[in-house]
């Protein structure tokens, strides 16, 4: 596969991830807090749930791209796996760094950070794919599966640590409706 086709696919992947992640931010509420939709949509405003918004669209373009390119780009799966992990790490590192420095989260910066992370992640994948570096596709598949299961499991069984804490309610996981007595 030539560089132009790979580049075009990565551009598509970037645009798709940005649009899909934005939509996934609202799908849980839109579908009436459907328990199945919670698996791949944000259920609160924690950093973890925002990483989920990134992961699922990028995973989808990884799967589609793998079947689209596998004969010509044997390192596609590894490249995309590394880019997903790097994108998530970028978000975590920069979010906690800037909020630690200024003492609060700013929505505009959070949104910009998310989109910059996706763009950088897809660019990293492109650069890795065209360099034809070698890695283990089975290990990459295993990492993606473990990450997938972690996002799903922790949606329903949420650890009580900072990355899972809703920034607005200070609660964890799927938020219960509060009723007033």
Textual characterization of the structure:
The chain starts with a helix and ends in a 25-residue tail after the last helix. It is built from 5 helices and no strands. The model has no long low-confidence stretch (mean pLDDT 91). The chain has 181 residues and is mainly α.
Discrete helix count: 5
Distance between the termini: 64 Å
- Overall 3D form: globular
Helix content: 55-70%
What is the rounded Rg? 17 Å
* Largest sheet properties: none
Order of helices and strands: HHHHH
The chain-level structural class is mainly alpha
**Estimated share of beta-strand residues:** under 5%
Provide a brief overview of the structure.
The chain has 181 residues and is mainly alpha-helical. It has helices at 3-30, 47-69, 76-102, 107-131, 137-156.
Keywords:
181 residues, mainly alpha, 0% strand, globular
How is this fold's topology laid out?
Elements: H1 3-30, H2 47-69, H3 76-102, H4 107-131, H5 137-156
